[in-house]
Amino acid sequence: MANFARIRLILELHDRGMSQDEISRSRHMSRSTITTVLRTARKKGITYAGIRNLDDAALQKLFFPDRPEGSDMYELPDYESIHKELKKPGVTLSLLWTEYRDRCHQNGNIAVGHTKFCEDYGRYCTTHDLTNHLEHKPGAQCEVDWSGPTMQIIDRDTGATISVHLFVSCLTYSRYAYVEATLDMKMDTWLRCHVHMYEAFGGVPVRTVCDNLKTGVVKHPKEGEVVLTDAYEALGLHYSTAIMPAGVRKPKQKASVENTVGNIATAIIARLRNKVYFTLGELQKDVVTATDKYNRQPFQKRQGSRYEVWLDEKKYLRALPRAPYEIASVILGRKVYPNFHVSFKKNWYSVPYVYRGQSVDIRYTDKLVEIYCGNRRIASHIRFPDYMTNHYSTRPGDMPDAFNQPEMDKDRICAWAEKIGPCTSEVIRRIFDSVTIKEQGYNAALAVLHLSQKYPKDRFENACQYALAHTTSPRYNYLKAVLGNNQDKILDSVHSARYENTGKHSISEKGAYIRGADYYGGKTK
What we know:
- Mean pLDDT is 79; it is low at 219-224, 249-254 and 501-514.
- It contains 19 helices and 19 strands.
- By secondary structure, the protein is α+β, with helices and mostly antiparallel strands.
- It has four domains: 5-127, no CATH class; 141-316, 2-Layer Sandwich (Nucleotidyltransferase, domain 5), CATH 3.30.420; 329-398, no CATH class; 410-520, no CATH class.
- It has helices at residues 5-15, 20-27, 31-44, 48-51, 56-63, 79-85, 93-107, 114-127, 187-201, 230-239, 255-270, 280-296, 306-313, 410-420, 422-433, 442-452, 457-470, 476-484, 493-502, and strands at residues 74-75, 110-111, 141-146, 151-154, 161-171, 177-182, 207-210, 217-219, 227-228, 242-245, 329-335, 341-344, 347-350, 359-364, 368-373, 376-382, 392-393, 506-507, 513-514.
- The strands form six sheets. Strands 3, 4, 5, 6, 7 and 10 form a six-stranded mixed sheet that branches.
- The termini are far apart.
- The chain is elongated.
């Protein structure tokens, strides 16, 4: 049975002229309870004089006629749903009590006070063996760091020992860990480990807490704003997570990962200490296996395991972006060639032809090449692998059919080559035959012809003849090497004239030069 003496006392004190604040302070009552009682009394025209002699049952019928006799005057909270709500980021007991109180007022019921609300929640947690001190909320935070102890791999060729560093991270609520072996602790490696970490977690926490390492933090003053590196800041924006460095010399601000680093030393480094690794991939495979075993071990002072708690925490993490963050580098001041292509890593990427001759900047990732003129992106291409060279990525829109031709077109280039000699002309022809569109051959052909201006025509013609006999499509570097090593001089003017007259050498149908035995010192019958 509820204590209806409180209703009598509230009406009595109010009848004597005391304000609601005075009643609350003097009798240690919840202001919301006092407000509800007085509001109900005014609505139903109830006065203290009219109820002073009524018993509790009559008073209940007067104030709560719809309630069964003997029911509680308070609307009790649902502590099971409250415990679930407390797991969500930013939710506190005070906020939940405020929402509960407002809901009671809307329903015309009386809410329990804040103190009783919190005390009853504590008793609920004790009865149901739950933890009511939620220091870390699910999905709210992860912590990252480098492990102090390192591991090693052996170089098969030299036998040298190579140090391997461990990137260690964990979600602070579930303590679910992610560990990755790396060969260095540079900026690009640090960022890639974060990308792999978020993928392993299956989502992104609200905050990512790191140490004050130079690859991530530019400045962390005692007062003022923390300054992150541009790349680290960009990663945080891409994943919609707040990068928050811990205070300088304050390891307790990232105590979870500090504890995990210590555990990893035993769970991974110590367990794998007797195994020999020759590649980083082999080591990382065992690191993943050992980390999974560590995550599935039962807690010592808590129910379940890191893995089991993580399965519940995953639904509180923010969704991963559609595309992972890609680490980008920038090259400034690259010239656009007359064929409206830009050279990058020995390959060629087109830009709109109107930009030929201008200076542009290249921003590149592992998969993409972007070209900027000022702050405007003018072209974007899929990047060729580093093992590919002299390949062209040409967008049709960069060179429409009716565009202004460069000053030196194919006809003029071929005419120039013919003036030097048939072998030079053949070299130029093969250059144009090796490209998809003729404009892609301008740079290589002009480089060859400009080289011809540094040597006598007969020497350059001999060099072209020599090159054609040894490679399918000679280019500038090959011809320069032939001339620099004087290999062209073995084809002196006497031999050249004799074989031109006798037809002892000629260009075959496939384009290769065929020489007779006399050229190599043999005798003819």
